[in-house]
Write a structure and sequence with these properties.
An eight-stranded mixed β-sheet has the order 3-4-2-5-1-6-7-8, with helices on both faces. The C terminus is likely disordered. It is α/β, with parallel strands linked by helices. The chain is 51% helix and 9% strand. It has two domains: 269 residues, Rossmann fold; 182 residues, Four Helix Bundle (Hemerythrin (Met), subunit A), CATH 1.20.120. This is dynamin GTPase. Keywords: Cytoplasm, Endocytosis, GTP-binding, Hydrolase, Microtubule, Motor protein, Nucleotide-binding. It comes from Salmo trutta.
Length: 506
Amino acid sequence: MGNRGMEDLIPLINKLQDAFSCIGQSCNLDLPQIAVVGGQSAGKSSVLENFVGRDFLPRGSGIVTRRPLVLQLVNNQAEYAEFLHCKGRKFVDFDEVRLEIEAETDRITGSNKGISAVPINLRVYSPNVLNLTLIDLPGMTKVAVGDQPIDIEHQIRDMLMQFITKESCLILAVTPANQDLANSDALKISKEVDPQGLRTIGVITKLDLMDEGTDARDILENKLLPLRRGYIGVVNRSQKDIDGRKDIKAALGAERKFFLSHPGYRHIADRMGTPHLQKTLNQQLTNHIRDTLPGLRSKLQSQLLSLEKEVEEYKNFKPDDPTRKTKALLQMVQQFGVDFEKRIEGSGDQVDTVELSGGARINRIFHERFPFELVKMEFDEKELRREISYAIKNIHGVRTGLFTPDLAFEAIVKKQIIKLKEPCLKCMDLVIQELINTVRQCTNKVPRCMEPVMPCHASPVHMGTSHQGAWSLGAMWSCLLVFSGCCAVRCVRDCLCFSSRVSGFP
């Protein structure tokens, strides 16, 4: 692939991202991307604004980024911005870009600092940027503010996990230098999904705010908590600079001067700073796309063939075709059987942490309730010895035997097994009830949007009657319940028959 082809990789992925955002789904394709993670006030927004050279991101206290922002940077002579949800409108004033981000965020999440995983797609054209795509994620927090739900920390963590757990996602972990690196929220969560540090790029901010006499040299030289892709240090504008509307170009000049003049960073100044970070991310993302493209292409072709086959089936689609409705019913029954088996075998995709369910409850019946019923049975050892003695003597008659006869053993054992019949039946009744409850839970997962499943001519007519009736989904639930009950009863009957054959009872 030539240089021109390499340059087109990022715009190609941008087009795919826009297409998936428009249709509201990703077609199960994990596109190569860079996700920006970090704690609140770690300097994520300042880093992105330094890339663009403009102030365009919302600022304030608490959680400011409340929806993922897919930021697509495109090198272009003219400078303007476009939103995917505002097609055809070009934003030349970047203050309007900030207001639009705030308005679009409030449209989905409301004004109560809530969060949403629905992304905002923003494309910025500028001569100051390299082709690059980043996903700015909400900053991690510990405490709920205002009307936020009390589990806001877990909500944000779950949202971050949706992105960074994918192998196709590079992680830009932003950490302030005036914080202990061992306590970094960004590196901690990155370590969970990328323990070898193969996908993580470290960014150290606020190097100018470290205590006098200290520096982050060991971190930036990748000696402390090493990452495969290393660390890059940047110096952002202070809050005073932002409030004073300090020009970003001037801030980048001050950043360059800081690294060249600092004795701890002078020897690595050419590998520090915002311009080097942007160039590195452009190269890393391009190489990452190139490496993942063959697998992405193969998966896309496979899904294309599958979709074409499905479209071909719909060309001759007839809503009243009984074969399609029968197929839908069979698929529902098949899914029901799979769910039922998972609940009994304990291999379901969702684990209940509140109470026992399915096979676990049946297991408890056999291992706790049944032994308890056996312990409650009255047992008179003296009476048993007397019965054994009489049985042996009666079988021997006038003779005197040296060995215990088999008939005496069978007679005593049969009598004792009869006493086990009542607790066994009680145990079976409890198992049947648990099976029926499990069936009810499984039927709740079957989509009810398919009702009615079968047409009028697909039920009693096929059974040899002339009555025209329609099967509703409720009828199917009843059939499934009756079917499971019959299976359970038959299971109990078979068990009793087997025990009867073993014990010799009718």
